[in-house]
Structure formats: C-alpha cells, structure tokens
Amino acid sequence: MSVVDSVISVRLDDEKDELILLDQTLLPNETKYLHLKTPEEIFEAIYYLRVRGAPAIGISAAYGLYLTTKNFCTESMDVFCAELTRIKDYLASSRPTAVNLFWALGRMDKVLKDNYSKTVSEVKALLKAEADAIRNEDEEMCKAISENGLKLLKPGMGLLTHCNAGTIATAKYGTALGPMYLGQDRGYNFKVFADETRPLLQGARLTAWELHEAGIDVTLVCDNMVSLIMRNGWIDACLVGCDRVAANGDTANKIGTSTLSIVAKNYGVPVYVCGPTSTIDMNCPTGDDIKIELRPQDEISEKWYEKRMAPEGIKAYNPAFDVTSHEFITAIVTEKGIVYPPYDVNLKKMMEAE
Ligand code: MRU
Hints:
The protein is of the alpha/beta class. It has 2 domains: 3-142, Up-down Bundle (Four Helix Bundle (Hemerythrin (Met), subunit A)), CATH 1.20.120.420; 148-352, Translation initiation factor eif-2b, domain 2 (Rossmann fold, 3-Layer(aba) Sandwich), CATH 3.40.50. The chain is built from 12 helices and 14 strands. The protein has helices at residues 3-6, 39-47, 54-67, 77-92, 99-114, 120-150, 178-185, 202-213, 226-231, 257-267, 298-301, 343-352, and strands spanning 10-13, 18-22, 33-36, 158-161, 191-195, 217-221, 237-240, 244-246, 251-254, 271-274, 280-281, 321-324, 331-334, 337-339. A hairpin with a 4-residue loop joins strand 1 (10-13) and strand 2 (18-22). The protein is globular and about 65 Å long. Bound molecules: 5-S-methyl-1-O-phosphono-5-thio-D-ribulose. 5-S-methyl-1-O-phosphono-5-thio-D-ribulose is lined by residues 49, 52-55, 98, 163, 165, 169-170, 175, 202, 241-243, 253-254, 320.
C-alpha cells in the first residue's frame, strides 16, 4: 500500500475522545501516533510541529475544538459559547502564519453562532459534522489540485520542491506533492529534487521520506544547491505549497521559498504554488500584511547537531516563513483551477465564482 493510503496524519477517535496525530517530529526514524485529549496537548502538538502543514493544522484545530468541548457539561448556550470561544482563541494562538488554522476555527465558530437557538447537544453534533466536513473537503481539494497540477507537467520532467506539502501535511494526497503522486500512478517518471529545508528539515525528513516510500525518484539537496541544479538544467518546474496567499498573489510559505522562486525566475523555470482555496486570504491585501512566525533561536544553533554548532550566546534570527512576491509565481494551482497573473483580478474572480 502506498504511503498516501497507509499514513493518516490527523484522525478523530470519537469513541475514545482522542485526536490521533502522527508525530511528524520523529519521522523518518519512528512512526508514532499521539493520542491527545486536552487543549494544552493539541496546542503543544501544533506549536512544536508534531502536526504541521497548513491544511493539517486547520483540520487538527477543528477536531481539537470539537473534542475538547464535547464533554463540557452545561445546558446553557451562553456558558457553552464562552468555553468554546476560550479554547478557540487558545488554539488560534498556536501558530500565526497559516491561514487555514483561523479559517477552520472560523468555520467552527460560525456553526455555533448560526445555531445559537438550538440546544447545546444539537450544536455539539453540528460541530462534529463541520470538523468532518473540513477534513473531507480537504481530501477532495487535494485530489483536484493533484489533477490540475499534473496538467502543467510532462512525463520525465525534473521537479524541485521545498518543505513538505505532501500527504502528511493535509487530509490526504498533499498539494505540491499531489501531482507527483498522481504522475507516478500514470507513469510520468518524474525526477524530483527535495531540498532539505533548514532549519527544521521538513524536506529531508518528510518529503524525501514520503516520495521515497512511494517509489518516486527523489534526490535530496541542500537549500543552497538550488541555483546549481537549475543551472545544470535538471529542473523543469518548481512545485511548492503555501501557508497564506494574499489577495494580490503574494504567498507566504516555508522560509526559503522566496529565494527558490527568485532563482527560478533567473533560470526561466516556472514556479507553481499549489494550495486549496482555504489558504487564500482575500482579507489580506498583500504579503506585507501576513504575520510571519518567529521561532526559537536554538532551532538554528543546536537542533539536529550532536553538539552545539554556534558560539554560546550568539544571536540567531529564525523566521519560519517568507513571502514570495507574486511576480515570481508563474501560476497558483487550486482545486477550482489554475490561476494566472494578474492575481489581484483573477484570484478575486475565482474566489467569487460559485
Ligand atoms: O512550518 P511548517 O512545516 O508547518 O510549514 C509548512 C509549509 O510551509 C508548507 O509548504 C505549507 O504549509 C503547505 S502544506 C500543504
């Protein structure tokens, strides 16, 4: 069975009252599932990237909100609403950049507000249905993104990807890796290059693992090798995911995406940003309006090394994301179709269409 079918990164066990998450920090050496019950445990899992990737974070938060309020005992809608809002705001503070987190929690909140006249137990059932819908829709969106992305590719192409936008970052299939899996099924024989993605190595640990498990020809490179492999003519297209796409097409994704995109433009290599419409934030006019997460300095100076690799007391700057300006993005691949520039016009058109 392929990795896409055998590995599920987020799952609800409603009978045992557990959110089951694949601990992505342990991959590729260990496949361990966490059984979480409390808001604090779910917050911790999101903050420490045990679950990560914009869609998977959104799904985890939606299930987490349902799970941690379902056994809250009250008949009063006001009291239930206060508790749900408290946990929603808490989970929303776990990571700032991926809009899917706020989008999913917003959907849960809307269910509550739209059904205020119902009983608490009726609303709990509706919250479960909404969290299931968020998860199931993501799987459908990723399937459609895979089809749409594959339309841009030809058999035998060399592809470069950054970070991990694969099956474990979503409900299933992935976004940027989705077309690669579909191409594999259809005999495209892509040659994929995965860059390491410093400092948390999502490319080396997760993407290289996913693609290798799936039998796809994948080569690991360091982040600073992307110019060389493009100059060598090995890359026909770059496929990356996204954490938030602004209304003008500027895109926040894992730190290093903008470097890759600028280099790609230099070599005439197209850059395709792949993501569901849940990652498009029309309330965010440009990339300057996207909040970029800053993470602990020791992720750069100590993590992964046997001993510290930077002088004690040295300052380190560790932003988790950067913004790729829309001018470096060839197309944005969504479940609704492929969007080309001008993004300020065409994203609006797509988001407003039924
Ligand atoms: O910090 P991470 O690992 O959550 O960052 C993930 C990314 O940047 C992904 O490219 C993005 O979330 C898309 S996942 C389909």
